[in-house]
């Protein structure tokens, strides 16, 4: 599976961004997808994950209620919608894939895309 994240940019605090992750392969629905973020000097952190069917999702406490993750299996795409952005949300965001069920740790994911930078101005 090859992954390509996009959609990052500069946004003011309180604003919104919609990231995208495009995946290659013919069995996309077999993969749970995850999003992680990494700020300078910090470890990679869990943001959200969605099941292969798209029917179940989980979020970190810091983004719950502000971010929504969805997927389009016909198009092999995953979309985190990021609302009410805060300066603390600024980081490089990565999408990741794993066969099977959702997991929360970066080491649980086998495939990673290159990150996309999100910058939030106060």
What does this structure look like?
With 122 residues, the protein is mostly beta strands. The chain contains no helices and 12 strands. Strands 2, 5, 6, 7, 10, 11 and 12 form a 7-stranded mixed beta sheet that branches. Strands 1, 3, 4, 8 and 9 form a 5-stranded antiparallel beta sheet that branches.
From the spread of the alpha carbons, the general shape counts as: globular
User: What are the low-pLDDT stretches, counting only 5+ consecutive residues below 50?
Assistant: none
DSSP strand (E) fraction?
Answer: over 45%
The description of the largest β-sheet is: 7 strands, mixed
Helix content: under 10%
The helix/strand class is mainly beta
Order of helices and strands: EEEEEEEEEEEE
Mean pLDDT: 97
| N-to-C span | 37 Å
Give Rg in angstroms: 13 Å
The oligomeric state is single chain
Helical run tally: 0
* Record field, number of beta strands: 12
Features:
single chain; 122 residues; 5-stranded antiparallel sheet; 0% helix; globular; mainly beta; 7-stranded mixed sheet
Strands, helices and their partners?
Layout: E1 3-6, E2 9-12, E3 17-18, E4 20-23, E5 31-38, E6 45-50, E7 57-59, E8 67-72, E9 77-82, E10 91-99, E11 111-112, E12 116-121
Parallel strand pairs: 2-12
Antiparallel strand pairs: 1-4, 3-9, 4-9, 5-6, 5-10, 6-7, 8-9, 10-11, 10-12
């Amino acid at each position: 599976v090859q992954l390509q994240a996009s959609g990052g940019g500069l946004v003011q605090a309180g604003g919104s961004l919609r990231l995208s992750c495009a995946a290659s392969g013919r069995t996309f629905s077999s993969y749970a997808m995850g999003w992680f973020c990494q700020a300078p000097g910090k470890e990679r952190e869990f943001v959200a994950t969605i099941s292969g069917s798209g029917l179940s999702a989980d979020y970190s406490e810091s983004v719950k209620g502000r971010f929504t993750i969805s997927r389009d299996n016909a198009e092999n795409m995953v979309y985190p919608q990021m609302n009410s952005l805060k300066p603390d949300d600024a980081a490089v965001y990565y999408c990741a894939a794993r066969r099977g069920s959702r997991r929360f740790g970066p080491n649980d994911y086998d495939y990673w895309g290159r990150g996309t930078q999100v910058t939030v101005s106060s």
